[in-house]
Write a structure and sequence with these properties.
Layout: E1 11-16, E2 21-26, E3 32-38, H1 50-58, E4 67-73, E5 87-88, E6 99-101, E7 108-112, E8 116-118, E9 123-125, H2 128-138, E10 144-148, E11 153-159, E12 162-169, H3 171-181, H4 195-207, H5 212-226, H6 230-248, H7 250-253, E13 258-260, H8 264-275, E14 282-283, H9 286-298
Parallel strand pairs: 1-4, 4-7, 5-8, 10-13, 13-14
Antiparallel strand pairs: 1-2, 2-3, 6-7, 8-9, 10-11, 11-12
Helix pairs in contact: 2-9, 3-6, 4-6, 5-6, 6-8
Length: 306
Amino acid sequence: MSGKADTGPAWIGVDWGTTHLRAWAMDAAGRVLHDDASDRGMGTLSRDQYEETLLDLVGGWLGTGTVPVVVCGMAGSRQGWAEAAYAAVPCPPLGAPLTRVQTADRRIAVSIIPGLKQERPADVMRGEETQIAGFLHLNPRFDGVVCLPGTHTKWAHVSAGEVVSFQTAMTGDLFAALAHHSVLRHSLADEGWDGEAFATALAEAQSRPEALAARLFALRAEGLLHGLSPSAARARLSGLLIGAELAATKPYWLGREVALIGASTLCAHYETALRAQGLAPIRTNGDAMTRAGLLAARAQIKEPTP
């Protein structure tokens, strides 16, 4: 739900991604009072547009006092509102102080959560650290791997409350590029699914990941010569890419407990892939983990002075 609040919230949590912006008005215990979203992601904004964009979304929730606003995601990138420097792993997911942003409107006190970096092999994350923090806030004894499927899927080894290491796979980016900007765009459906085709492609890619490029073109050839349906081709493309990702990240998930955080449909595909390897991954709600992480970050900052 969204709308105006009769009294201002205790604080506001914001997830500011590259393409979308989400905000939640919260009470002190972390319960959602109001929520709203827009398509004004980082990729559409110049630095001087962030405050106005945020106020357009949450201004109706504000009273006369000053409300803390905790922001995660790409608003803290070099191209964002204010750069929030990365914390180096191994460290807790909220491994560095929040970055305070100066605002013209005194009704908001904005702080941005830093991302995480890994020096060798070089890797970065921004936004996922908040979801990992939320998961650990709810599961403080977890020791294993957190997988966050998405455009850039993250595999994070977590132990003793810290992110020990992580690895990123551009699987979602590759799927979008191949599906919309390669010859395969003529062979794939925009919707539809074939579970058997997905499972077969998963097994093929994990057993012979070095053959990925050849198997990708086979999707086009099989459509032309043998009538491979567009929905089956779509599922096979997904299976090939996720299978290759699992082959590359095997040192992370093999023999470990795995938790999945992300969109329901995408996490379901990863769950199928991991169950085929004998694992029983924990499924979570991505938005709930984000809010729990924002709540954990909120506890680190002092109340603003009116």
